[in-house]
Amino acid sequence: MIRTILPTMLPLMLGALLAASPALAAEAVQRSGLIVSTNPKGNTLTISEMGPWHGPGTKPARREIQLAPATRVELATRRDEPGGYQGQYVDRPLATADLRPGDYATVTERPEGGKPVATKVEVVRPDGTAS
After folding, report:
1. Which of 10, 39, 59, 96 is deepest in the core (most CB within 10 A)?
2. Cα end-to-end span (Å), the chain
3. What are phi and psi of 37, to 5 degrees?
4. DSSP 97
5. Which residues contact 45 (CB under 8 A, 6 or more apart)?
6. For the CA atoms of the chain, what is the radius of gyration?
7. Where would I find the H helices in 71-116?
8. What are the structural domains of the chain?
9. Does the pLDDT of residue 48 top 80, yes or no?
């Protein structure tokens, strides 16, 4: 019985795996690091990200990520909010032009056209300022 079912099911299983491959490849990836630079037009962001540890010689990798018009950019600041807890993080929208070197960012990206494109950028400023 297995000899008759396996030849029938194997092509179906292989087809399903191949059909799912592009969807798996387009999964969102999160990267975190310090913003090194933004370009004057505000459509790319370069972060310095520490990748997997490979010993004392491991160095941060620079990642250039495209910013799309639909990219959501938020600044997280600590604030006491009514009904919340002391020192909680509160997100507020931030203009792409207000991203600056030295900010710590977590970028959610997806591949589009062979390049990483940010869908969301969450920023925390080391000095805690909101501007």
Report:
1. 96
2. 70
3. -160, 160
4. G
5. 35, 37, 38, 64, 65, 67, 99, 105, 107, 118, 121
6. 21
7. none
8. 27-124 (2.40.50.320)
9. yes
Whether residue 21 has pLDDT greater than 50: no
Grouping H, G, I as helix, E, B as strand and the rest as coil, residue 8 is helix
- Alpha-carbon distance of 122 to 99, in angstroms, equals 10
- Which residue type, as a one-letter code, is found at position 81? E
- What residue has token string 């399903």? 16
Looking at this protein, which amino acid is placed at residue 110? R
pLDDT at 29: 93
Would you place residue 127 in the very low, low, confident or very high pLDDT band (cuts 50, 70, 90)?
Answer: confident
CB 32 within 8 A of CB 104: yes
